[in-house]
Amino acid sequence: IAHGYQEEVVGIMGENFTFPVQIDKKVAEIVWKKNKHKVAEWEYQSEPTYYGSLSSRSILMENGSLTIVNLENDDAGIYELVYWDYVKEHQLNFVLVVLDSLPKPEINCSTSDGELVLNCTANFQGSLNYTWKLGNNPHRYRNQKLSIPVKNVDITTNATCIIKYSQTERSSEISLIQCLP
């Protein structure tokens, strides 16, 4: 990796975030810095040491990965991993962006041309996965919109929209009877 390369990584407020690092060599020493200040350090055969604002909220593993527990806005910044593999020093740089927590999705519905159309929206900075679930039907529909022929609509059924980003999900539910004119 060329020097000066920075990988952008994204975490969500309130979630646990782990930097995508996997060192597969034998390592003698690991140092993590945030904005040039040391936050975690590990040397062969000793316990990790933590510094600063992350000291009570981070976990450093011997494979180099650093996990931040319960991500906060202030955790955003430039992180640098330096490790020594007995031969030479390696450096990886990350820019951590912290996004707001996920909103509850909004569902609106309309009927046109004999179809009931359900639309799920959520205002979020990242690209979301949308899934619909109808009543107890195990089948999931992976779209932002769901169309059902009006003649097939069971008014006792609830429709649930689930949005997912990273490890986090939020959902909202609507009763189909609300949707019919």
From TrEMBL:
Entry annotated with the keyword Glycoprotein: yes
State a GO cellular component annotated for this protein. membrane
Which UniProt keywords are listed?
Answer: Glycoprotein, Membrane, Signal
Domain annotation Immunoglobulin: ranges: 6-99
Q: What is its main location?
A: membrane
Kindly give the SMART domains that the UniProt entry links to this protein. Answer: IG (SM00409)
Name the UniProt record assigns to this protein: LFA3 protein
What organism is recorded for this protein? Rhodinocichla rosea
Question: Which lineage is the organism of this entry classified under, starting from the top rank?
Answer: Eukaryota, Metazoa, Chordata, Craniata, Vertebrata
Q: Which gene encodes it?
A: Cd58
